Amino acid sequence: MRAALCGPPCTGTYGLRPTAYGLRLRTQAVKDFLRRNQVTRLDAVAGRGGLVRPIPAGSYRVTKKMIDDLSSGRYGSHASNLGALIAEKIASAFNCPCLIADPVGIDEFDPLSRYSGLPGMERRCQSHALNIRATARKAAKKLNTTLEEANFIVAHLGGGISIAALYRGKIIDVNNAYDGGPFSPQRTGSLPTTQLVELAFSGKYKSAEELNYTLTRKSGLLAYLGTDDGREIRKRIEQGDQQAARVYQAMAFQIAKEIGAMASVLKGKVKAIIITGGMAHPPLTDWIRERTGWIAPLHLYPGEHEMTALAEAGLRFLRGQEELKDY
């Protein structure tokens, strides 16, 4: 059997640095899967792109420099950093090309988007770029246009929330899902700055790492409602839980505000608003539509489409439709 393999999405704890043990464990799991399914040939391997250096969107050949950057966590540590490392191991075993597509670190910001208000502290372009661009590509096809010819606002609603302004295919502005934007299932989103400074120096937290862990893993829906499971929260709302409804509506309110901000970035010229990710379901999407429907039509693509996006990137390369970029 022959195939083009897409690496599994590497979800996990923020701050996780790839380890030799973790890499061996996950690589062996992929090899076991291939063996069970009698795969004897691979034409290409596509892995999830992690926190690489700032680069333009597209598909990239996995290189030693990329492996070094991801292994060391030079540009940030996250479980997704393992994607290219696993892909490289599998590709070496099958002697085939290896690539990543639209990694978290792609950066095509408008220069104005980088200003934070404090010199020396620059806004960073880090997002769920793979799913954002994949769903925008699907929507463009549905609307009889292309990613490069239209402007979209894409809201990825998952464990983290990324809301991006896409100008002709380029993410020219997006909230960093760890540092700002709406609160999410586990993250605070943007916070009142002076109150955050007071909290940091209050003595409640022993270190910056402990506070950051709270802000990115124990906040948001989890802090308000004791769960980060959207299905459970929707069930509570259906059963009349008013607190669950208020918190969920508040998150929709913040998402809608961010969408409005991105509409201003695109000067109001928006072909469609695209909602994707695991939380792209009513009533959350209904509340978002109520506040943003005046901007542009809203299209839903529930779920995360990273695996399909990686497969499509691999096929574009194998068919000669897209050349791999050098990292």
**Overall geometric form:** globular
Q: What string, H for helix and E for strand, traces the elements in order?
A: EHEEHHEHEEEHHHHHEHEH
Identify the CATH class of the largest domain.
Alpha Beta
CATH topology of the largest domain, anyone?
Answer: Nucleotidyltransferase, domain 5
Helical amount: 40-55%
Tally of separate domains: 2
Second-tier CATH architecture of the largest domain? 2-Layer Sandwich
Structural class: alpha/beta
How far apart the termini lie comes to 31 Å
Count every helix, treating DSSP H or I runs of 4 or more residues as helices: 11
User: Major beta sheet, specifics?
Assistant: 5 strands, mixed
Strand content: 15-25%
Q: How many E-type strands?
A: 9
* Low-confidence blocks of residues: 8-16
CATH superfamily of the largest domain: ATPase, nucleotide binding domain
What is the mean predicted local confidence, pLDDT? 93
Task: Enumerate the strands of the largest sheet in spatial order, edge to edge or round the barrel.
Answer: 7-6-5-8-9
Task: From the alpha carbons, calculate the radius of gyration and give it in angstroms.
Answer: 20 Å
